[in-house]
Structures are given as C-alpha cells and as structure tokens.
Amino acid sequence: MEIRVLSRDIEKALRTLKKKLQLDGVFGELKKRRFYEKPSVKKKRKMLEAQKRKRKLLKRARPSGSSSGPRTGPGRPSQSPAAASDQARS
Fold first, then answer.
1. What pLDDT, on a 0 to 100 scale, did the predictor assign at position 74?
2. Measured by CB atoms within 10 angstroms of the end CB, which terminus of the chain is less buried, N or C?
3. CA–CA separation, 77 vs 90, rounded Å?
4. DSSP 8-state class, residue 63
C-alpha cells in the first residue's frame, strides 16, 4: 500500500491511509485478534455473519413496493379467519 504526500500535507496523507486501512478491513481484524476467540465462538460468529449477508442480499434483490397483494409468511394467515371459514363451508 502506498500513500503519496503532496506539498507536505501530512494530515491529508494520514486521513487517506486510515481510509484505505478501514476499507481493507485491517482495523476490524486487529480488533478481532486482540483477544482469543474459542473455535466454537468463531464458528458461530461466522455463521451469523453469513446469515446476515444472505438476508442483506435477498433484501436488495427483492423489489420494494411491487407486491400486488398482502404479504404472507410464517405466522401470517393468507386471509382472515372469517373468510377462510366461509370458503370451507362452500
């Protein structure tokens, strides 16, 4: 990694260096390695991070506001209980 100092502007060069280190993830890695992490804890953390990344990708891929009907999912009935019983009688 190389940072050029132009016209003796050390402060700007330091800001640029810190920004590049931040984007490369060096500071996060240093923070993680500050203390020992048990393999089981490391495995669980990595699994949670992967799930978070997956949810984030799915959220970005799903077009927002383009659904034609009410959202259904776990714990959400597709229709009201009264409407369901009316259909069962027919």
1. 64
2. C
3. 19
4. P
pLDDT tens track, the chain, 90 positions? 888 888 889 999 999 999 999 999 999 999 989 999 999 999 999 999 999 999 999 999 987 665 555 566 566 656 655 665 555 555
Token pair of 14, please? 């330091």
Residue 11 token pair: 């402060």
Distance, CA of 52 to CA of 48 (rounded, Å): 6
Strands (E), 1-90: none
Cα radius of gyration (the chain): 25
Spatial distance between the Cα atoms of 39 and 57, rounded to a whole number of angstroms: 27
- 46 Rama class: left (phi>0) / alpha (psi -120 to 50) / beta: alpha
Give the residues across from 76 on adjacent strands. Answer: 73
Rounded CA separation 16/60 (Å): 30
